[in-house]
Amino acid sequence: MSGVRGNQLNLNPFQKPILDSVALYDYDEDTDDSTFDKVFRGTRLSDGFSPEAPDELSAEDFESNPSQVNSSPPRKSLHFTHFVPKGAVRSRFIELQQWEGIVSEVSHEAFFARLISLSDDKPDIEAEFAIDEVHSEDKKLIHPGAVFYWSIGYKEDRGQRIRASLVRFRRLPAWQKHELEAAKKDAKDFADLLEWK
Amino acid sequence: MNDIKPEIQGASIVLIGDFNPKIFQPAWFASQDLIRNEEAKDAEIQIVHQALVDFSLEWLKVQVHQDRFSAGTHQRPYYAALKDLVVGTFRILRHTPIRMMGINCDYHFSTGSEERWHSLGHRLSPKEIWNKILEKPGMRSLSIEGIRPDQHMGKILVRIEPSRRIQHGVFITVNDHYEIQEADSTLGCDNIIDILSESWDLSVARSYGIASKIMEEK
Prior knowledge:
The structure holds 2 protein chains of 2 kinds. By secondary structure, chain A is of the alpha+beta class. Chain A has helices spanning 66-71, 177-193; strands at 91-106, 110-117, 125-130, 147-157, 160-169. In chain A, strand 2 and strand 3 (125-130) form a beta hairpin. Chain B is of the alpha+beta class. Chain B starts with 7 loop residues before the first strand and ends with a helix. The interface between A and B is large, with 71 and 96 residues.
């Protein structure tokens, strides 16, 4: 754990300029104007939000431009923080519900799992999945105790909307020796604390 | 909680430290079993350079500089996979010095009408003062910073702008910023990756709560 809270921030209405946090939200000044969405151009000016696109780009606009990168050495200011590429609006998954599943039993053609809702507080449920529903490269990951994520919803692609179900098994590196030793030590410390013999 | 749902959303994890970008190629992720081989094969590689790597999968975008690692997705079902990928990567590369982390969530909400759009802008940035200073003042960007509600070092930064992707929409981005205590003597990344592993779900939920609250306030 990383330690305790450090400098308490002054919560005056007028905050000092936030310079260090910008490090995680840099703006790219290279993107040309063609990346602006013109939706606000030409609409009437009003005083709630400003309808004009800003002259400077925000993190919202950033999309890395490899041609620029290739033509000159990479600059430190070339950063990205935003992950809604233009194409995403044409193809996206509208999630209705997501569960985390824990495999409890595996048979020849199916596996059983306990599903914990990640979308709401509904109680856990048990479910059976056909192994064929799992991507061929994920089948080797199906074993008791394995964790997967199951999402249901709609996939929208170029104006078409279809029901979709997505099963993806968790991929984490195998436990390493130092992690197992740390876990054993934690367990022992906890047992000692409770005076379990 | 208001029932309003974002039209578009994305999440990213940004790490600040010292990285060797050339390691972070799709084939390396596949060789470590962090992504599928098929995904690595189909990856769209923008650049592989000793100073910068940039590639995308169907659900993932990765960009690594010598001082910064970023990974993100714009697909909600892959949020957990994104976290697992970053945790897995730096469990393997555990000696990578990492000093700071941002868990960033972006949302585009529709307000449904121009009237509601302006109403939200007025509420967030009242114009009483600005009307005396500028003609037709309008809100372009608003950033508000708050202290962390937990024991970690860092801050929470919220920024709101008109959406450029949705008509009469609002773009909200929440930067959940973490720092480790002794950044100068950081030798590895176990601390920050432990925080990521433990805080991800809470951070994503908190960011959504913040964004929803902004949209639902009357």
